[in-house]
């Protein structure tokens, strides 16, 4: 790997006006396993591939609930994500205490954006080595945000970050017009299909390595709208979803021709 | 470049033998890569506009705003490193609020520019920080009326320190641009970012700085702003146009910094595209 004089800290601009330390931190995000998020008019889902360090170890968690109405998916340094996650939990709790209601998602995301920006401007600090997808609902409906180590935060319709996430993003771009009117289950299936695009050869979605998180707004019996609290589904709870996209009937994927090769569709097996 | 390899460009706040601070110059480079921002000061207000480059199809359209409101009557737009811009805006909001707390009156655009210029400059002084990778354009409308002071008791001094000189006009539209060095000037029309050269050339053609003050009306300025962003834009890339405006209390925004209404924005875009096509045919 080439070296240069301008990449030792986050307070040095290169002659082109770049800050290499921040760009390197963005590389750390690409080392993490892939996570996908999609928002519709009523729901927002996060789906993730979990990795285990070795055969007998447990799988590293990828989805974290923040508050009743917000959850995050992480790619990169898990310990950095924990710092951000704790911060977000505290802010949400503080907001609830002060105002007696849910924190607006954008407000929350802006807070971690500002926090991360400071790490890119002061000597002795380093940028966070983690990228997040933040899913949440507020009075304006469901939202999905991407957070980068630079402090950049943007609202997305759908997005994927982590290793080989470009493949998942390509899937999402192809199907972007379908998401808005998707129901909860359809959205999850789209998420899993996007996830499958990013899998390395001969790996499969299994109940052990797949996590699904959902939040949204649902119509209650009395006609009012209620928040479906953010919940993470693992293990047996994701089995039916995995099976529904397993023998990919090319359901919502629509775009024929592109889909071949992903329909392996054999039995579920434990991740190796 | 002469700066590279000398060692004088490796840390902030270091002077080279010929008196330059290279890290600040490099910060300017970060600005020059960002989407174009412009501001126009016209007869009855200020217009801010920005070219938002669409980096991904997956971005939610019109959801990611780039022009921020700092106080009721103040807007800020910036080019360069967006997280730095957001930090700048937060600081500007703090300044505006602190001013209100202290003086019980809204901060003037000039005073905000001064405070923020000082803030940016401080980030060129120490090796422990880096300069801001943004150039910010601050637009505001300082009320021409006697404002009821926040939480006032009485109306304040009629003359002298803190008072207004009778018979003199006060307030009006104001526009400032602050660079990474902390340098700031007041402008009739300001442009920064990737397309600043083309935008400046267009701004100079407008009647903004005549002796009788700018001739351009607010609505005309909105249309010009849209056109200039289109002119400055590099054709093949997709972008979104975001515009805000500020008028006096009897104008369309009632003294507030607001997004330009959709109908007017779309009309301005239509005219901008038409002007582009006509230019192409020539």
TrEMBL record, chain A:
<feature type="region of interest" description="Disordered">
    <location>
        <begin position="244"/>
        <end position="272"/>
    </location>
</feature>
<keyword id="KW-0963">Cytoplasm</keyword>
<dbReference type="InterPro" id="IPR001353">
    <property type="entry name" value="Proteasome_sua/b"/>
</dbReference>
<protein>
    <recommendedName>
        <fullName>Proteasome subunit alpha type</fullName>
    </recommendedName>
</protein>
<keyword id="KW-0647">Proteasome</keyword>
<dbReference type="InterPro" id="IPR050115">
    <property type="entry name" value="Proteasome_alpha"/>
</dbReference>
<comment type="similarity">
    <text>Belongs to the peptidase T1A family.</text>
</comment>
<feature type="domain" description="Proteasome alpha-type subunits">
    <location>
        <begin position="6"/>
        <end position="28"/>
    </location>
</feature>
<dbReference type="InterPro" id="IPR023332">
    <property type="entry name" value="Proteasome_alpha-type"/>
</dbReference>
<dbReference type="InterPro" id="IPR029055">
    <property type="entry name" value="Ntn_hydrolases_N"/>
</dbReference>
<dbReference type="GO" id="GO:0005634">
    <property type="term" value="C:nucleus"/>
</dbReference>
<dbReference type="InterPro" id="IPR000426">
    <property type="entry name" value="Proteasome_asu_N"/>
</dbReference>
<keyword id="KW-0539">Nucleus</keyword>
<dbReference type="GO" id="GO:0005737">
    <property type="term" value="C:cytoplasm"/>
</dbReference>
<feature type="compositionally biased region" description="Acidic residues">
    <location>
        <begin position="257"/>
        <end position="272"/>
    </location>
</feature>
<dbReference type="GO" id="GO:0019773">
    <property type="term" value="C:proteasome core complex, alpha-subunit complex"/>
</dbReference>
<dbReference type="InterPro" id="IPR035144">
    <property type="entry name" value="Proteasome_alpha1"/>
</dbReference>
<dbReference type="Pfam" id="PF00227">
    <property type="entry name" value="Proteasome"/>
</dbReference>
<comment type="subunit">
    <text>The 26S proteasome consists of a 20S proteasome core and two 19S regulatory subunits.</text>
</comment>
<dbReference type="Pfam" id="PF10584">
    <property type="entry name" value="Proteasome_A_N"/>
</dbReference>
<dbReference type="GO" id="GO:0006511">
    <property type="term" value="P:ubiquitin-dependent protein catabolic process"/>
</dbReference>
Automatic annotation (TrEMBL), chain B:
<dbReference type="InterPro" id="IPR029055">
    <property type="entry name" value="Ntn_hydrolases_N"/>
</dbReference>
<protein>
    <recommendedName>
        <fullName>Proteasome subunit alpha type</fullName>
    </recommendedName>
</protein>
<keyword id="KW-0539">Nucleus</keyword>
<dbReference type="InterPro" id="IPR050115">
    <property type="entry name" value="Proteasome_alpha"/>
</dbReference>
<dbReference type="Pfam" id="PF00227">
    <property type="entry name" value="Proteasome"/>
</dbReference>
<comment type="similarity">
    <text>Belongs to the peptidase T1A family.</text>
</comment>
<dbReference type="InterPro" id="IPR000426">
    <property type="entry name" value="Proteasome_asu_N"/>
</dbReference>
<comment type="subunit">
    <text>The 26S proteasome consists of a 20S proteasome core and two 19S regulatory subunits.</text>
</comment>
<feature type="domain" description="Proteasome alpha-type subunits">
    <location>
        <begin position="8"/>
        <end position="30"/>
    </location>
</feature>
<dbReference type="GO" id="GO:0006511">
    <property type="term" value="P:ubiquitin-dependent protein catabolic process"/>
</dbReference>
<dbReference type="Pfam" id="PF10584">
    <property type="entry name" value="Proteasome_A_N"/>
</dbReference>
<keyword id="KW-0963">Cytoplasm</keyword>
<dbReference type="GO" id="GO:0005634">
    <property type="term" value="C:nucleus"/>
</dbReference>
<dbReference type="GO" id="GO:0005737">
    <property type="term" value="C:cytoplasm"/>
</dbReference>
<dbReference type="GO" id="GO:0019773">
    <property type="term" value="C:proteasome core complex, alpha-subunit complex"/>
</dbReference>
<dbReference type="InterPro" id="IPR001353">
    <property type="entry name" value="Proteasome_sua/b"/>
</dbReference>
<keyword id="KW-0647">Proteasome</keyword>
<dbReference type="InterPro" id="IPR023332">
    <property type="entry name" value="Proteasome_alpha-type"/>
</dbReference>
């Amino acid at each position: 790997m080439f070296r240069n004089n301008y990449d030792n800290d986050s307070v040095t601009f290169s002659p082109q006006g770049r800050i290499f330390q921040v760009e390197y931190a963005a590389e750390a995000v690409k080392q993490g396993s892939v996570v996908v998020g999609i928002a519709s008019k009523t729901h927002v889902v996060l789906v993730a591939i979990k990795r285990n360090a070795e055969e007998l170890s447990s799988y590293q968690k990828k989805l974290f609930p923040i508050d009743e109405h917000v959850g995050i998916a992480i790619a990169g340094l898990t310990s950095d994500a924990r710092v951000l996650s704790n911060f977000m939990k505290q802010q949400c709790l503080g907001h609830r205490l002060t105002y007696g209601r849910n924190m607006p998602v954008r407000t929350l995301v802006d807070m971690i954006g500002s926090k991360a920006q400071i790490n890119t401007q002061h000597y002795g600090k380093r940028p966070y080595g983690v990228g997040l997808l933040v899913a949440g609902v507020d009075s304006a409906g469901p939202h999905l945000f991407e957070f980068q180590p630079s402090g950049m935060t943007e609202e997305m319709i759908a997005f994927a970050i982590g290793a080989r996430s470009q493949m998942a993003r390509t899937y999402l771009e192809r199907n972007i017009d379908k998401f808005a009117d998707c129901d909860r289950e359809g959205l999850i299936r789209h998420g899993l299909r996007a996830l499958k695009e990013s899998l390395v050869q001969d790996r499969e979605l299994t109940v052990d390595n797949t996590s699904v998180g959902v939040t949204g707004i649902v119509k209650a019996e009395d006609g009012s709208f209620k928040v479906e609290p953010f919940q993470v589904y693992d293990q047996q709870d994701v089995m039916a979803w995995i099976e529904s996209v397993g023998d990919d009937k090319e359901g919502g994927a629509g775009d024929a021709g592109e889909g071949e090769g992903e329909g392996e569709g054999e039995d579920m097996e434990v991740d190796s | 470049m002469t700066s590279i390899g000398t060692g004088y460009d490796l840390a902030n706040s270091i002077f080279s033998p010929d008196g330059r601070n290279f890290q600040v110059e490099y910060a300017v480079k970060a600005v020059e890569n960002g989407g174009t921002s412009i501001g126009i000061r016209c007869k009855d207000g200020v217009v801010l506009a920005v070219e938002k480059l669409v980096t991904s199809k997956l971005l939610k359209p019109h959801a990611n705003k780039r022009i921020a409101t700092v106080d009721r009557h103040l807007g800020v737009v910036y080019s360069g490193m967006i997280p730095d811009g957001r930090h700048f805006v937060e600081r500007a909001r703090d300044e505006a609020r602190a001013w209100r707390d202290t003086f019980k009156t809204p901060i003037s655009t000039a005073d905000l520019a001064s405070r923020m210029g000082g803030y940016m400059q401080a980030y060129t002084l120490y090796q422990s920080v880096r300069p801001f990778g943004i150039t910010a354009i601050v637009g505001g409308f300082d009320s021409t009326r006697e404002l009821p002071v926040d939480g006032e008791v009485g109306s304040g001094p009629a003359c002298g320190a803190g008072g207004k000189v009778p018979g003199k006009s006060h307030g009006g539209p104001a526009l400032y641009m602050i660079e990474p060095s902390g340098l700031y000037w007041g402008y009739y029309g300001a442009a920064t970012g990737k397309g600043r050269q083309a935008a400046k050339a267009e701004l100079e053609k407008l009647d903004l700085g005549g002796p009788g003050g700018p001739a351009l009306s607010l609505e005309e300025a909105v249309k010009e702003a849209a056109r200039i962003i289109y002119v400055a834009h590099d054709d093949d890339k997709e972008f979104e146009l975001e515009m805000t405006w500020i008028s006096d209390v009897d104008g369309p925004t009632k003294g507030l910094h607001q997004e330009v209404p959709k109908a007017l924005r779309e009309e301005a875009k239509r005219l901008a595209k038409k002007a582009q096509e006509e230019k192409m045919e020539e």
